[in-house]
Amino acid sequence: MPVNVLFSARPALWPVYEPLLTNGLSEAGLDFRLGTEFEPDEVDYVVYAPNGGLLDFTPYSRLKAVLSLWAGVESIAGNETLTVPLARMVDHGLTRGMIEWVVGHTLRYHLGMDKHITVQDGVWTPDAPPLAQERQVCVLGLGSLGQAVAQALAALNFHVTGWSRTPKEIDGVTCLHGADGLREALSRAEIVILLLPDTPATENTMNAETLALLPKGARIINPGRGPLIDDDALLEALGSGQVGHATLDVFRTEPLPPEDPYWAHPNVTVTPHIASETRPITAAQVICENIRRGEAGEPFLHLVDRQLGY
Ligand code: NDP
Description:
Elements: E1 3-8, H1 14-27, E2 32-35, E3 45-48, E4 65-68, E5 86-87, H2 92-110, H3 113-118, E6 136-140, H4 144-155, E7 159-164, E8 173-177, H5 178-187, E9 191-194, H6 208-213, E10 218-222, H7 231-240, E11 243-248, H8 261-264, E12 268-270, H9 280-296
Parallel strand pairs: 1-2, 1-3, 3-4, 4-5, 6-7, 6-9, 7-8, 9-10, 10-11, 11-12
């Protein structure tokens, strides 16, 4: 009997993924059917993104796994109709994209680029930036993305402190964890990068209390998820100068509504959730490998802990 793989994501992605998944599943030697429409009780695997609209997995009686095209799984991790393994996306292309985006914005802050780009007022101010080795950068979240970003920044000689739920050891990075670790990490962070998942435990990680721990004028870069930040507290901290500038890629409501105060704030850069995206060529390989594993009875890669939500 063929393995039936349902593609449930933004319809525009189907023509991109269809040939890639067809190749990958053929190379895995599988007898398969791949499509955007099946009877639910025929489906073995769902290739999933939230914008595919699939919410109720109850009728998917022979489902073996849901394979997310997204790294962030907050919209499905708590879905009680889903009772089979959920794997999230860990994709080399997505990781490289995140490194480039974060390093770019970190260097922009570090070198004071905005000042020299936006103010061309004829005033010669020779304020050379320090070296990266004199700059304290903090990465909250040391998973597949946070760890890669922390290592890339350390390779540029930044002083990098990372924070995660469980203890870590990463070359060139001071790793902290737990509530005390967060306080220590933030108290010296001139630039904070948020790469935590959106879970009940991470909501409002940056709040009035934690923002107050930062050195005055610290910069925040958030490519993680909107709910990691208490927006009112951040606007307050931006107003007082406690936070000097924020670059925000993700928001509680997306697209960010036109009337949102972040758009017009002089000390905020808004980007439209473009920090990094899943790259179809590498992502299709991950999906096909997981289907191959499922069929061979091997453990799936990148499984989500449904209790923890990531
Ligand atoms: P991972 O699941 O690999 O890593 C998550 C990290 O966060 C881990 O280090 C984990 O700690 C840590 N963490 C989780 N909960 C807590 C907590 N309560 N306290 C402290 N640390 C915690 O995720 P990725 O690195 O792959 O991705 C991170 C996030 O980036 C995604 O969830 C997604 O929201 C976002 N993202 C944004 C994109 C964009 O374009 N803007 C693109 C892709 C992803 P531990 O290791 O100890 O478990």
